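Most newcomers find our protein records easier to grasp once they have seen one. A record pairs a protein's sequence with a compact description of its fold. An example says more than a description, so a record of this kind follows:
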Amino acid sequence: QVQLVESGGGLVQAGGSLRLSCAASGRTVSRLAMGWFRQAPGREREFVASITWSGSMSYIADSVKGRFTCSRDNAKNTMYLQMNSLKPEDTAVYYCAAASTELPSKRYFTEALRSGYWGQGTQVTVSS
């Protein structure tokens, strides 16, 4: 079993930055792909970013490409989401996820999460 705990959310002005962290405990996540989803009020949960277990490759949603980066430190069992140039439309609850897949593109990571793990979420609010 894997437990995922997000941190780093908060209130920030448009144009600002935040770094989210996802700390994993329980079973080691070093062989699991990890990623981020977000859900805004009244909207479906959407893919934001994912990263391979080695950290060698990441996938970023078009809506945040160029502004968000995803990284991980397996020695610390922690994944990060660096969010720059934040916009009000980035306001959402951000969820950390982990699943077993070698190719965590949006499609395959989402499929793998049918038997994966989720965190409880952290709120990010961007004011205009």
Residues 14 and 32 are 33 Å apart (CA to CA). The chain is about 5% helix and 50% strand. The longest helix spans residues 106-112.
